[in-house]
Amino acid sequence: MKKIKKFVKSCPLAVCILCSWAIFAAAEHLPLSAKETPAEDADVQEDENRMDSETEELTAYDTLSGVTAANRAPDLSEQALMAGDAAGAEDSDVADAGEVDGSAAGGANGSGAMDADGTETEADEAGADEKPEKIKPEYISYEKKKTDSPWYTDPGKIPLTTEYDYQKVKKDYFDDAVFIGDSRIVGMNDYSGLTNATFFAKTGLTVYNLLDEEFVKDPASGKMVSVSYMMQHYTYGKIYLMVGINELGTGGTERFAETYKDVLKKFRKWQPDAVIYVQSIMGVSPKKDKTDPVFNNTNIRDKNYAISKLTDGIHIFYLNIQEIYEDKNHNLAQDLTFDDVHLYAQHYDKWVKYLKTHAVVKGA
Amino acid sequence: MQFSSLEFIFRFLPLFFLCYFVMPERGRNVVLLLGSLVFYAVGEPVYIFLMIASILFNYAAARGIARCRAKRFWLVSAILVDLGALFLFKYFDFFAENVNLLLHKDALPMLQLTLPLGISFYTFQMISYVADLYMGNIQSTGSLLEFGTYVSMFPQLIAGPIVQFKEVSQQLRKRTLRLRSFEQGLELFCLGLGSKVLLANKISIFWNQVQGIGFASISTPIAWMGAVAFSFQIYFDFWGYSLMAMGLGCMMGFRIPRNFSVPYMAHSASEFWRRWHITLGRFFREYVYIPLGGNRKGKLRTILNLFVVWALTGLWHGASWNFVLWGIGFFVLLVLEKNFYGAFLEKHPAIGHLYLWILVPVSWMIFEITDFSQLIIYLKQMVGIHADQVLVTGAQLLRYVKEYGWLFAVCALCATWLPVRLYRKLQGSRWLVLICFVIFWLSVYEIKQGANNPFLYFRF
């Protein structure tokens, strides 16, 4: 007893740390917090756990940080104010293009009538008189390898850029373009010199939080708003999308593709006249590919294969950005990156060049 | 297992100290030795046998020297074996690469051995022990248990300080536990942890960012910010580590020497090196410079001795030419200061500071960038020669300043005398307890948050 008294008296710091540690440890083991709430969906719960275990790796990608909200005002032409709210937008959409039949108003994915290629079905419905032919991406096939991962299987295929009569364009093509994506698009915003385009880019952005996270500055009000808000209140001629690296360890490929499809569907609804470019998720370097059980190129290919199937070559095009930067094994070439994931600043201009030579010009 | 890892702080350390204090005084060296071996084995399960073999061999040699039989033979063989192991693991590939390059053929194979954890540090400790015995600086070898504990003692095993046997031999034999010093050690540990986790790790993000952008595209201000960020990173990382080592030693009743004494507030490169990694400088002075004749054999010989010392100091930091260049750079500065403008810098402290603050970031870039072509690009960016288009705009610079400005300011403050003076002033007061407590939990929180935790001096 005397000894303890002496210890408390002469080692206040040790005592404080030990006591607080005991309190924290106890708090963690007591069922106090939301931990105990039953998950609606066992799958989701599992995914969340996985996400937890991956947060460490995810933070590793946060090197190019900073929210890069677009603060340039997009083209505020006569179309700028479409319908006031979401429901209104839907109506005008249906009336306007007549592409989306009733089922699309339901909004949510998997609405019976449409199967794997919801967007494609929409396209089918389009323009009864002159039906544009849909174009599916071609693939490079390779021998599948066995995988043992809850997040992916080896697709054995690398999708290629949609075959199309692309035009060569100048920088002004991007005046009404919006780039949406994760840290790779942040890098593009920072270093590509594409100052006339709009960017909704944020490090760590995923297909799951892309629509609703409020990280974009609305040029009209100066408030932070979500991408869906911007999409409903402004008009864009081209939408360039690249997400997918952050969610490699969150949910399997199926759920990823479902969500991606949903996002595309909404973009089509809100921006019926826009050309949508689905950009391939850029791969990682061979070093990372070899060592990382989650963030590797097989996983990325699986995701790319899934999203390439969502494109139709009419409104939605697949761009194999990877091919600009890959080595002979289709990895991100090692000498183009410092952290195995992001490009050096000087290499973004090749990307822009690629986009300039792969532009869809309607009516051309 | 790093000091700044949760498993060390919340598993190893409490368990170790429980065993340590429950044990009666006589058995504490055994607990410390076993604990250290466990600590080492976690990080280095294979080469732990190399370390144990080294300890046994050096002890045998030491006994040989102590028994006054073939003193020289034992000294030379111990040093040869120690340096031989170090050469094999750390320098062989570097050596082979250069030989092959010189001969234009593959004369020597690359071994691609991984560097055993802490080998650069414990090799030097063992050499210092054997040499001190030979030179008569220590009288007795101590027991094998004492020697083994001295070398493997986990606070200083993997990243220094390079403790000398004579500093701790008495404490190895007999040390009484004082609660006061336990508390003081814990305070030092918390402060060191904070330095590592809250300062070094945080500012390392900026340097990583600069590397991610690629040196070819950065502007001159970003190049300087990057270099300064790295200077802070390496200092707070290593200083923090040394403080943690001191603190842990203190908690057990050891006095581990201080390794840093506010180096960035020096007025000259010579003074900087008297304040930076003090135990390494001491090693080279006592076991290389002075045995070579020091400054007693004429001016030319002194310069030659200095050259050897600094080339070796550079090489000790890593098997690559940029480290040699870095060491030789300091050699040139030291010779210049000694013979020309050293006295002037002493007299004009403001100019001295400025001189050092410009040199230090440049020197750290030579240290950090191992690829020569990249290094040249970086140095050119620092002086404003841009070969490629600069892609980092003013707006981005502003963003970085906004985002990291406060961190640079805090680091700058903590690199002055301020924290040391504050610590001395607050010693024994409740304020210090509160500060350490807050720093401790903030650090733990940070560790839990992110995995961005590379120990710069871990593999040396």
Give a description of the structure.
Chain A has 364 residues and is α/β, with parallel strands linked by helices. Chain A has a single domain (56-357), classed as 3-Layer(aba) Sandwich (Rossmann fold). Chain A has helices at 2-10, 12-29, 42-60, 86-97, 118-125, 183-191, 227-233, 253-270, 286-291, 297-308, 322-325, 348-357; strands at residues 68-69, 139-141, 157-159, 177-181, 198-201, 214-217, 224-226, 238-242, 275-279, 316-319. In chain A, strands 1-5-4-8-9-10 form a six-stranded mixed β-sheet, sandwiched between helices. In chain A, strands 2-3 form a two-stranded antiparallel sheet. In chain A, helix 8 links the parallel strand 8 (238-242) and strand 9 (275-279). In chain A, helix 8 packs across helix 10. Residues 33-128 of chain A have low confidence and may be disordered. Chain B is mainly α. Chain B folds into two domains: 6-174, no CATH class; 181-449, no CATH class. Helices cover 73% and strands 0% of the residues of chain B. Chain B has helices spanning 6-22, 28-43, 48-66, 71-103, 119-135, 144-152, 154-157, 165-173, 179-213, 220-252, 269-275, 278-289, 299-316, 321-347, 349-368, 372-383, 394-414, 418-426, 430-449. In chain B, helix 9 (179-213) crosses helix 19 (430-449) and helix 12 crosses helix 13. The longest helix of chain B is centred in the middle third of the chain and has 35 residues, at 179-213. The two termini of chain B are 15 Å apart. Residues 452-460 of chain B have low confidence and may be disordered. The chains are: A alpha/beta (364), B mainly alpha (460).
